[in-house]
Write a structure and sequence with these properties.
- This protein has two helices and twelve strands; from the N terminus they run ββββββαββββββα.
- The longest helix is centred in the C-terminal third of the chain and has 6 residues.
- The N and C termini lie far apart (about 45 Å).
Length: about 170
């Protein structure tokens, strides 16, 4: 069996394409916050929810669009979409689509070193408050910190908690 590899991708910022502009992205790491719960003969890790999520993007230009959003008040004021093509290494060369939607706000914008005659890059870090991952159009994971939503493979894992606290 051969792995499917990311052959190409595009980033969309506020609906506009960054094809050829966004050349690298670090998608949010999904991390559970765990606390030790001592038991009779050891420790059980107690799940306390999600850690904060971040995404990092490298752009091949000095980008005024992200600079104009710096310090935006809304925790979900920046909207990004990653669309990737995962290509099979078999004779059929199947292509799967990977899509990640992220809402957040710019935490850090690094305009890099400007040097005459050299490529100029801008690196930006997004503090992510909403994350949705889809594979071939199917929802796999949706996390919305502000609205207390966590849906994984169609199961709303926080529905009972929302109900218990009156949301």
């Amino acid at each position: 069996m051969m792995p499917k590899k990311l052959r190409d991708f595009n980033m969309f910022h506020e609906g506009g394409s960054w094809l050829g502009i966004a050349n690298e992205i670090v998608l949010p790491k999904l991390t559970r916050k765990m606390e030790d719960l001592p038991t009779g003969n050891g420790v059980v890790k107690m799940d306390m929810g999600n850690e904060a999520m971040e995404a990092e993007i490298t752009l091949e230009e000095f980008n005024a669009g992200i600079l104009k959003q710096y310090g935006i008040a809304n925790h979900a004021g920046v909207q990004l979409r990653f669309a990737g093509a995962l290509i099979s290494q078999t004779a059929s060369e199947e292509t799967d689509s990977l899509e990640v939607i992220m809402h957040g706000r710019w935490q850090e914008i690094d305009s890099d070193t400007a040097k005459k005659g050299d490529n100029h890059q801008t690196k930006a870090k997004l503090a992510v408050s909403y994350y949705k991952l889809m594979l071939n159009g199917e929802d796999v994971i949706e996390i919305d910190h502000a609205n207390h939503i966590e849906v994984v493979d169609g199961v709303d894992r926080l529905a009972a908690q929302r109900q218990a606290i009156g949301l």
